[in-house]
Amino acid sequence: MFKKILIANRGEIAIRILRACRLLDIKTVAVFSDADCGALHVRFADEAYNIGPSPASQSYLVMEKLIEVAKKSGAEAIHPGYGFLAENWQFAKLVQDSGLTFIGPNYESIRILGDKLEARKLAEQNGVPTVPGGPVNASKLSLANKLADRCGYPVLVKAVAGGGGKGMRIVNAPDDLEKALIAAGNEARSAFGDDRVFIEKCIIRPRHIEIQVVCDSYGNAIYLGERECSIQRRHQKLIEEAPSSFVDPELRARMGETALKAVKAANYSNIGTVEFLVDKDKNFYFLEVNTRLQVEHPVTELVFGIDLVDEQIKIAAGEELSIKQSDVSMSGHSIECRICAEDAVNGFIPSTGKIVSYRQPSGPGVRVDSGIRDGSEVTPYYDSLIAKLITYGSDRTEAIKRMRQALAEYRIAGVVTNLGFHETIMAMRAFVDGDLSTAFINDNFPNGISNAEPDEELSRAAAVAAALHYYRESQRVRTAAPCATASSR
Questions:
Q1: Active-site residue, 460 included
Q2: pLDDT digits 0-9 by tens, 227-251
Q3: In this structure, which of 14, 150, 260, 430 has its CB flanked by the most CB atoms within 10 Å?
Q4: How many CB atoms lie within 10 A of CB 426?
Q5: How many other CB atoms are there within 10 angstroms of residue 32's CB atom?
Q6: Dihedral over Cα of 9, 13, 17, 18: its sign
């Protein structure tokens, strides 16, 4: 087992990994930018090193600095968390070439599965169903038109190297195709340095359901059920749960076995997630493989009783998977709300500032993975996710009830958050009934969050609660005393 690990990340996921390392008696090395000098993950680690200016491009994304710190500190392995360099195959290769261990799949698996066209081709070759579509070139519009016609409108234009909704456009009619191809290509070039795009048939109101897989280096592989991630804004997930209220045991087994086919074809080792779209008739289509720890991994941990970060580290250290598929059992229900510093009422725009007051909920079945505290700064340099609120119950009804209570107890003042929005969702009849799709927010808030007129009694009550929540927080910001600046290491 490793004696010391460098965590090449920040925020809540850095702390989550730090805690897993402590349980394994592994020393930890944190890295931080100038903006994060007082961050919680810096204080939690055994050692911490400044890696440069606040922009990620000058700190968390500079591979050579991370390798340098790992060697200087005596770390034997690097855990990338999610985001930043977690799915960068060049970084994984550099780590390996430097004599260190990358806690994740091998770089060749990341390279193949990170290229959406290559991953799609591999899936098709191995009998994994994919959405009709294929690669296109914006300069060859006639060919793109033919492909889109074969798929049938609406279609999606997607970046080959994309993620998080970047480089993606919905096209409803042929006249809009050229403009979408150019816009998606330009956005993809800016975000990923790769302007290649492809076209896929747009599945109407699908569910986004993903399968957690765990594979070791000895050919053993299991799947740990599914997570439903259908509630999204701008193709970015907001609420996840396990299991899905839509998936029955037969569908779960078929999707699980199909997911294993997809990763085994890429000679995959470590944990990963195979994402699918599922239509109303329970047909499912391969989307992509996320070759890393997912933000929403806690809901799987709670219903399967397995520490996924612990498994990641053990597999990377060369241990054989100790669990067989026949050993896997699922119990209860879990829901996760991503608590973001953003204003749902105003188009989910990010909010920045100092956290002047912070109180997180607790109680039976409540877990908070957070990277903030009183005095923390939410800066414009990084993702708006500041914490994850996860609840567990014996069934979905209990998990929702506990989530409502936890959201009501949560207090974050100093920045605008989406706590009130989550309260609204948790009280909506459509959510309670499990009537979900990736169009949930657009369908239920067609005029925007501020003009929402929920059609159920519970929803109206939740809207009032959300308004009160925003009011309380705004009053708290006005009256709270400023905190001293946190010291840094």
A1: no
A2: 999 999 888 899 999 999 999 999 9
A3: 14
A4: 24
A5: 23
A6: positive
Distances in Å between the Cα of 309 and the Cα atoms of 18, 63, 194 are 10, 22, 31
Classify residue 453 as exposed, middle or buried by CB count within 10 Å of its CB (0-12, 13-18, 19+).
exposed
- Mean of the per-residue pLDDT values for the chain? 91
For strands 133-136 and 197-201, give the pairing.
antiparallel
Q: Give how far the C-alpha of residue 428 lies from the chain's centroid of Cα atoms, to the nearest Å.
A: 23
Q: Work out the end-to-end distance of the chain between its first and last CA atoms, rounded to an integer number of angstroms.
A: 28
Tokens of 400: 């929702």
Q: Taking phi first (over 0 means left), then psi (-120 to 50 degrees means alpha), and beta for anything else, what does residue 99 get?
A: left
Q: Are 219 and 228 in contact (CB under 8 A)?
A: no
Secondary structure letter of residue 319 according to DSSP: P
Q: Report the run of H or E that residue 14 belongs to, with start and end.
A: helix 11-23
**Distance, C-alpha 57 to centroid of its chain:** 20
Length of the chain: 489
Q: Please, are residues 165 and 233 in contact by the beta-carbon 8 Å criterion?
A: no
Of 213, 210, 211, nearest to 271 by C-alpha is 213
Closest CA to 98 of 37, 216, 8: 8
10, 292, 367, 402: the catalytic one is 292
Estimate to the nearest angstrom the gap between the alpha carbon of 311 and the chain centroid.
19
161-165, 169-173, 341-345, 472-476: which has the minimum mean pLDDT? 472-476
Q: Which amino acid is at 411?
A: R
Task: State the DSSP H helix or E strand holding residue 392, giving kind and residue range, or none if neither.
Answer: strand 385-393
Give me 420's structure tokens. Answer: 């009130």
pLDDT digits (tens, 9 = 90+) for 333-368: 999 999 999 999 998 999 999 999 999 999 999 999
pTM: 0.87
From CA 62, how far away is CA 52, in angstroms rounded? Answer: 9
Instruction: Compute the distance between CA of residue 377 and CA of residue 411 in angstroms, rounded to an integer.
Output: 16
For residue 284, give every residue at least 6 positions away whose Cβ sits within 8 Å of its Cβ, in sequence order, or none: 129, 209, 251, 254, 255, 258, 276, 277, 278
Report yes or no: 393 and 365 within 8 Å, Cβ to Cβ.
yes
Cite the DSSP H helix spans in 126-176.
141-151
What would the two tokens of residue 249 be? 């045991």
User: Which residues face 4 on adjacent strands?
Assistant: 27
Question: Do you find a cis peptide bond into 243, omega within 30 degrees of 0?
Answer: yes
Burial class (CB in 10 A: 0-12, 13-18, 19+), 57: exposed
Q: Which residues contact 390 (CB under 8 A, 6 or more apart)?
A: 298, 299, 302, 334, 335, 336, 337, 366, 367, 368, 369
| Token code pair at residue 481 | 């005393």
In the numeric block, which tokens belong to residue 302?
């709670």
Who contacts 362 (Cβ-Cβ below 8 Å, separation ≥6)? 368, 409
270-278/207-215 β-pairing: antiparallel
